[in-house]
Amino acid sequence: MSKVLIIGAGGVGRVVASKCADNPEVFSEIMLASRTVSKCDVIAKEVGKGRIKTAQLDADNVAETVALINQFKPELVINVALPYQDLPIMDACLETGVNYLDTANYEPKDEAKFEYSWQWAYHDRFKEKGIMAVLGCGFDPGVTSIYTAYAAKHHFDEMHYLDIVDCNGGDHGKAFATNFNPEINIREITQKGKYWKNGDWVETEPFEIKKSLTYPNIGQRDSYVLFHEELESLTKNYPSLKQARFWMTFGQEYLTHLRVIQNIGMSRIDPVKYKGVDIIPLEFLKEVLPNPGDLGENYTGETSIGCRIKGIKDGKEKSYYVWNNCSHQKAFDETGTQGVSYTTGVPAMLGAMMVLTGKWQGKGVFNVEEFNPDPFMERIGEFGLPWNEEINGDLEV
Ligand code: NDP
Question: Where does the chain cross the membrane (predicted)?
Answer without folding.
Answer: none
